[in-house]
Amino acid sequence: MSATRTATVNTSRGNALDVARVRADFPALHQQVNGRPLVYLDNAATTQKPQAVLDALLGFYSRDCANVHRGVHALSQRATDAYEGARETVARFLNARPREIVFTRGTTEAINLVAYSYGSRLSPGDEILITELEHHSNIVPWQMLAERTGARLRVAPINDRGEIILEEFQRLLGPRTRIVAVAHVSNALGTVNPVEEICRLAHTYGARVLVDGAQAVPHLAVDVRALDCDFYAFSGHKIYGPTGIGVLFGRWELLEAMPPYQGGGDMIRSVTFEKTLYNDPPYRFEAGTPHIAGAIGLAAAIEYVTRLGLEEIRRHEQQLLQAATRALEEIPGVRIVGTAAHKAAVVSFVLDGVHPHDVATVLDHEGVAVRAGHHCAQPLMERFGLPATTRASFALYNTLEEVDALARAVRRARELFD
Ligand code: 7TS
């Protein structure tokens, strides 16, 4: 599929994303599905991987495969250097310090780590504040923490556009609020939340803020110091990196005071049967052999998007978002769910009289991959009175031609079910 329409659009700095070249970096994009060129619009679920990431994984396993932090031999040194180098790359990417970066399995584990470890200091009557648009990963760990400690879970509402109602959020904050947990970008609606303002408000009450950045880091530049958040979580696989690796940023002084999350190798300083001394962060929170290849692959992915430029990526994706919104709105019977003023390139929609799964099935026949369902945000779906939506989510390699293909396929679904 040609990318010329997108590739010819120039940005004010004159270095627009060359989408045709970008697409050449992603082997998985060049395949047929059901006899049609693949149009991959399920990027919020996971992204495809560029050759640079595949090469980094292969390079580790074919040359440097050894365990980290425990061998003096050459391969172990190389593996350790690459793993710790990956930590430095992630730290630079977020404007954090390497010792503030904990490698986890993904966003889900990062949030569970904070809920379990930082959360252990909560007591009955304390409050945890989340919002109505959270992914289950940013709801359930807090519910479990509330059950364990007697703390109370409170939920800030959203408006009909899918935006957090800041006045309501502020009203729910109080001296008992200990933790605020909020998505930077909603996976189901695309809403970009005002996390800087949320951090500012929460801090006036002494609450700590965890930002779920799973859907933010692939689309916009994130600076944890500028946001002034206390914790920031994201997954490698949503930013063109491997599955099974993710990141927790934690402010050093918080990590330093937190108890371990899991026990095992690498997280200790010394062990006797009487007493174990724990290692310093981030190692305190990385029990056992980590996903070494995953961290190295994630660093390659971060270097890849950094080379292209987060601002260029954002502009390109905003163009796709606007085009997709317009094209879908023109189709009779389509209603877009999530119309916030600030959105990342996610378009959730329903088609009158057609179940979202049926829409997605017709789209798949046309080679268009989207997700249908509740998007692991059932309370959010309930807020909109819907069991599910169909969701197209865009990435840096998508084109305006693919937006056209999406709209054509949705029109086809409408005809079939008319
Ligand atoms: N938080 C948000 C906002 C997410 O979108 C997701 C995954 C997670 C947390 C969990 O990330 P994980 O890597 O630990 O699983 N979201 C989606 C999605 O929208 N479709 O599939 C997975």
Topology of this protein?
Blueprint: H1 4-7, H2 19-24, E1 32-33, E2 36-37, E3 39-40, H3 51-64, H4 74-94, E4 101-104, H5 107-117, E5 127-131, H6 140-149, E6 152-156, H7 166-172, E7 177-183, H8 195-204, E8 208-212, H9 224-227, E9 231-235, E10 246-250, H10 252-256, E11 268-271, E12 276-278, H11 292-308, H12 310-329, E13 334-337, E14 346-351, H13 356-365, E15 368-369, E16 371-373, H14 378-383, E17 389-393, H15 400-417
Parallel strand pairs: 3-15, 5-6, 5-7, 7-8, 8-9
Antiparallel strand pairs: 1-2, 4-10, 9-10, 11-12, 13-14, 14-17, 16-17
Bound molecules: ligand 7TS.
What does this structure look like?
- A hairpin with a 4-residue loop joins β11 (268-271) and β12 (276-278).
- The strands form five sheets. Strands 4-10-9-8-7-5-6 form a seven-stranded mixed beta sheet, with helices on both faces.
- The protein is built from 15 helices and 17 strands.
- The protein has helices at 4-7, 19-24, 51-64, 74-94, 107-117, 140-149, 166-172, 195-204, 224-227, 252-256, 292-308, 310-329, 356-365, 378-383, 400-417; strands spanning 32-33, 36-37, 39-40, 101-104, 127-131, 152-156, 177-183, 208-212, 231-235, 246-250, 268-271, 276-278, 334-337, 346-351, 368-369, 371-373, 389-393.
- The longest helix is centred in the N-terminal third of the chain and has 21 residues, at 74-94.
- The protein has 418 residues and is of the alpha/beta class.
- The site of ligand 7TS has 17 residues, from α5.
